[in-house]
Amino acid sequence: xxxxxxxxxxxxxxxxxxxxFEALLATYQKSLYNHxxxxxxxxxxxxxVLQNTFVKVFRSLKDFKGESKLFSWIYRIATNEAITFLxxxxxxxxxxxxxxxxxxxxxxxxxxxxxxxxIQLKLQKAIALLPEKQQLVFKMRYFEELKYEELxxxxxxxxxxxxxxxxxxxxxIEEYMIKN
Length: 180
Description:
Blueprint: H1 4-12, H2 17-40, H3 43-60, H4 70-92, H5 97-108, H6 118-128, H7 132-143, H8 148-155, H9 159-179
Protein name: RNA polymerase sigma factor
Domain RNA polymerase sigma-70 region: 25-90
Domain RNA polymerase sigma factor 70 region 4 type: 121-173
């Protein structure tokens, strides 16, 4: 992608906006889908959240201040949209977030888009038992291979705190995998 500030100007200019937004979609759609899918676990839900994310990005571009990279800003929106989606869905179903996550894991085996084996399913169960922040950090670091500096920009947390969260998450997952 070209110079980020020039690209943002194209996104904001009515004459170049459509073409620039198509480039934005082409650049981020697949990685954002994977990111969101790691959080919400379900293909259809991930598609809905992805669509909501791009609508929010489009509507909020004029407010982007450039204090972080565009990538980080968009991922922050996607992360918040995914968490908001899960919280709303859990509430609609009259469940706690933890109970809702457990139900999502149970439904994962029936999801035709889930390509994992028993070990992957066991890993997802272990991840679901983690506190929300540790889940996010683990998934973004382990599955998406994001650097701590990128995580820091996206989640608004210090690199040291993220390293500690990841370390604790890994230990808890290891314990779960051994005991189960």
